[in-house]
Specification:
Layout lengths: L2 H6 L9 H10 L5 H11 L7 H12 L5 H21 L11 H16 L5 H30 L1
Helix pairs in contact: 2-3, 2-4, 3-5, 4-5, 4-6, 5-6, 5-7, 6-7
C-alpha cells in the first residue's frame, strides 16, 4: 500500500496491513526523509500503533545518525499513545495498542533523551512535549479523582 494513499484516508479506513506499510517505510534508509517522516506520523495514530512500531520509533529517536527532524517526528508520534495509556491508567492496558512494558520503555527513553545534554535542542523539546502529554493526562485524572471525592 502506498503511504500517500494511506495519508489521504481516515485511519479507521486503513487496511489491516497499514501498520506493516508504515514499519517498512520508516525503516527504509533508502527512502526519502519526507517519506520516512510521513510514515512516522501515520504510525503514531492509535489505529496503527503497536509494539513493533513503537520500538522502531524509539530506535529512530535514539539514533543520532538519523536526521534531527525525523527523530523529533518519531517522538511526537509517540505522544498520543503515551497520553492514551495514561488515560487508561493501567487498568485497561490489555485493551491498549501497546504493552505495559513498551509504555514504560517510551517514558524511560523520552526522559533520557530530554535530560541528555548531547541531544539536540529540537529532539529534547519533542521529548519534553511528549512527556508533558503524559503529565497533562495524569493531572486531568487527578482532577477527576478530586472532583469525585467532593461529591
Amino acid at each position: 500500500m502506498d503511504l500517500r494513499i494511506l495519508s489521504q484516508m481516515e485511519p479507521w479506513q486503513w487496511p489491516d496491513e497499514a501498520a506493516d506499510t508504515f514499519l517498512r517505510a520508516i525503516t527504509d534508509k533508502q527512502a526519502s526523509t519526507d517519506d520516512r517522516m510521513l510514515a512516522a506520523e501515520l504510525a503514531g495514530d492509535p489505529m496503527a500503533i503497536n509494539d513493533d512500531l513503537t520500538s522502531v520509533l524509539l530506535s529512530i529517536a535514539e539514533d543520532a545518525d538519523n536526521p534531527e527532524k525525523l527523530r523529533s517526528r518519531a517522538i511526537v508520534s509517540l505522544g498520543p499513545v503515551v497520553e492514551l495509556a495514561e488515560w487508561e491508567d493501567y487498568d485497561f492496558l490489555s485493551a491498549m495498542p501497546i504493552s505495559g512494558e513498551r509504555f514504560q520503555a517510551i517514558q524511560e527513553t523520552l526522559y533520557i533523551l530530554f535530560h541528555d545534554a548531547n541531544v539536540t535542542k529540537e529532539v529534547r523539546k519533542a521529548a519534553l512535549e511528549a512527556l508533558a502529554m503524559a503529565e497533562a493526562a495524569l493531572g486531568s485524572l487527578d482532577d477527576i479523582d478530586d472532583e469525585d471525592e467532593m461529591d
